[in-house]
Amino acid sequence: FFLVFAMAESPPSSSAAAAAAGSGSGSSSSSMSSSSFTPPYTRLSLLYSALLLSSSLLMLVLPGVRSYLGLVPAKVLPYATTIITTAYCDASVVSAILSGALICTLARMVEPVMGTVEIAKTIAIANVGGAIVTWLWLVFTFAVTQRTDLLYSNVTGAHAAIAALFVALKQVNAKAVGAVPSTIAPYVPYMPAALLLLTALVSSVATNLLPTGLPSNALGGTIAAWVYLRYFRQPPAPTEALGAPGASPYQPIPGDASEEFAVASCVPPAFQAALTPFDRFTDRIFGGGSYASGAAGSLAAGMPSAAPLPGNDSEDARRRRERGARALEERLAQAAAAKQSAAASAV
């Protein structure tokens, strides 16, 4: 129902579509005034918030419903649907209100640029990824500690969706100037990592302060959203048909291979070198090795592969340069001789 509603939503405005279309090229056409990105709260975010709040009220009236909606690690196999439903319900009314407010605020900045359908896809993928990571983490923790309360804990909440919106906000902040208020724009690139660090620290210091599985849920949502947006998100369809005069001969590549959206960019520059190997590892797995860092990687990934030129070694290159220099000298000498003979004939 969530995805069907997103498909029925009206397409984004022309200015937002232009920003999304120009996100891969990094051209100045993506720069727009902030007034284009401040609509009222989107219907998709309001729907998500309504689902969270209504599920909380339903669990207060009928507590047994929580067993069929929340994720219980020991019952995932017989109730596999909880992998999906756990992210669209919340056992706490206060948590549902706070999560809904945060989702509405983040979606207000992200959705006009990316579009309703893409945001719905990103949230849905992140929710499933967060639920799977939470399930595996709780089962692993139970195997190590033998704490049965972890195996039968009931996990609910939109933590993966919030983490996914922070990842999307990082991408939008780098591609569409003015989409994010200037007061927080400098800090947006570090927000996904800060969210994970904060939840991990708080959950380790005060175990009962945060819901069970929140750090793993946020981690899974962050990873799933980043992988989708980095490698698999389809770019907007080109306005010109391939082969038309002036049209680009290359198909737009999926994902975002820019440096601004790499994992290393989520931390301050002093720590980025430690995460660069992780970027290369994910490039080999999901990008087939075609994702190089920076804009050069995006361009190379979109071009058709070509066989390497013969004689790429340094000795061959030196001989080719010498032959070229000799040929140039011969042509210059011939031109000078022809000019002299022409002058002599005229005299």
Indicate the topology.
Blueprint: H1 2-8, H2 14-21, H3 43-61, H4 66-69, H5 82-85, H6 93-114, H7 116-145, H8 148-151, H9 159-175, H10 191-205, H11 214-232, H12 272-286, H13 294-302, H14 314-346
Helix pairs in contact: 1-7, 3-6, 6-7, 6-9, 7-9, 7-11, 9-10, 9-11, 10-11
Number of helices: 14
Order of helices and strands: HHHHHHHHHHHHHH
Q: Quick one: overall form?
A: elongated
Task: Provide the helix percentage.
Answer: 55-70%
Q: Total strand count, please?
A: 0
Poorly predicted spans: 1-38, 239-250, 289-312
Structural class: mainly alpha
Could you give the distance between the termini?
A: 93 Å
Largest sheet: none
Radius of gyration: 27 Å
Strand content: under 5%
Mean pLDDT: 77
Describe the structure.
The chain has 14 helices and no strands. The chain starts with a helix and ends with a helix. Helix 1 runs antiparallel to helix 7 (116-145), helix 7 (116-145) crosses helix 9 and helix 9 (159-175) packs antiparallel against helix 10. The longest helix is centred in the last third of the chain and has 33 residues, at 314-346. 59% of the residues lie in helices and 0% in strands. Residues 1-38, 239-250 and 289-312 have low confidence and may be disordered. It is elongated. With 347 residues, it is mainly α.
